[in-house]
Design a protein that fits this description.
By secondary structure, the protein is mostly helical. It has one domain: Nucleoid-associated protein YbaB-like domain (Ybab, Chain: A, 2-Layer Sandwich), CATH 3.30.1310.10. About 60% of the residues lie in helices and about 10% in strands. The chain contains four helices and three strands. It has a three-stranded antiparallel beta sheet. A hairpin with a 5-residue loop joins strand 2 and strand 3. Helix 1 runs antiparallel to helix 2.
Length: about 130
């Protein structure tokens, strides 16, 4: 009889399934621990002059945009300033999530490298500064 016709041992299959479940539960617990430790809550970014603030929620969606009265002096450029501050907040959130993912997968995959590879250097630097402030 060939190996193809042999049925798998049910106990062995059950043991493998139980191990997979334990591994999944451990990964989920590690994720929850990391989330609590790293503060997976909202991230904030400020324009270079500090007059515009963007806050993203834990899912990376824009939750709040704060504009100081003094920013109104730059009406002609305000849209661009808001957009660049949103970009910075999104980059900050992406790097924060990449840190968490990197901690989960270890050295097997360069998650941070994948996230930051195509990110403009100035944006990457400002996002790192934001993370260092948290």
């Amino acid at each position: 009889m060939s190996d193809r016709n042999q049925r798998p041992d049910p106990e062995e299959m059950l043991a493998k399934l139980q191990q997979m479940q334990r591994d999944a539960e451990q990964t989920l617990q590690k994720y929850e621990d990391l989330r609590a430790e790293m503060g997976a809550e909202a991230v904030e970014a400020y324009s270079e002059d500090g007059l515009v603030r963007v806050r993203l929620d834990e899912d990376g969606r824009v939750a709040e945009i704060g504009i100081d009265e003094m920013a109104m002096r730059h009406r002609h450029a305000l849209g661009g300033i808001i957009r660049s501050t949103i970009d910075e907040a999104v980059a900050t959130h992406a790097m924060k999530m990449a840190d968490m993912a990197q901690a989960l997968v270890g050295d097997r995959i360069d998650v941070m490298g994948m996230v930051t590879r195509d990110m403009p250097e100035h944006l990457r630097d400002r996002a790192r500064d934001n993370l260092d402030r948290d």
